[in-house]
Amino acid sequence: LVAVLAVGNALGRVVAGFTADRIGGTRTMLIVFVAQAVLMGGLFVSRAAIVMLPVAAAVGFCYGANLSLFPSTTAGYFGTKNLGVNYGLVFTAWGVGGVFGSMTAGSIVDSTGTYALAYGAAAVLCLFAAALTFATKPPAPRAEPVTLRGSVERAA
Predict the structure, then answer these.
(1) Sign of dihedral through CA atoms 88, 94, 100, 103?
(2) Domains detected in the chain
(3) Which among 63, 65, 95, 143 has the fewest CB atoms less than 10 Å away?
């Protein structure tokens, strides 16, 4: 399963980057978040062994897609001047979600004996993320100052 997840991850990065270049990062994220919700919802309903291989590939695809989309979309929204800090904050939020999400899922499994509710909660959170793409406003066009070599700059 790990190898299949890794192949999906690699494909997701390339395909999502290509798609984002065509339709935009936010729209591509919407597609990925909905796909993740469908996958988690599917695991909520069935965890049959035959389902696990294609689902692992698709989950890996979505994971890789997010890793491709987040840096470019962060740069698109906030510019490149402070990209290191801004993307660091985005990725820190991802890490916090990983810690608390896994702890919450573990608690659900401990109390219910099954992953079903954890997958259901993940599906709901993915739909919430998809809804947030409608709430984000596209970045305003930036007027980047252009400096030509050898040009005389205006006195301030």
Answers:
(1) negative
(2) 2-135 (1.20.1250.20)
(3) 143
Q: What is the mean pLDDT of the chain?
A: 88
Is the per-residue pLDDT at 148 higher than 60? no
If we measure between CA atoms, which residue out of 30, 9, 128 comes closest to residue 73? Answer: 30
Is it the case that residue 79 has pLDDT exceeding 80? yes
CB contact at 8 A, 29 and 134:
no
pLDDT at 138 over 70: no
pTM: 0.82
Cα 106 to Cα 112: distance, rounded to the nearest angstrom: 10
Number of H helices, E strands in the chain: 5, 0
Unique residue bearing structure tokens 């810690």: 99
Name which of 16, 117, 118, 94 is nearest 62 in CA terms. Answer: 16
- Rounded Cα gap, residues 16 and 25, in angstroms: 8
Q: Average of pLDDT values for 118-144?
A: 85
Whole-number Å distance between alpha carbons of 59 and 64: 9
pLDDT of the residue at 143: 60
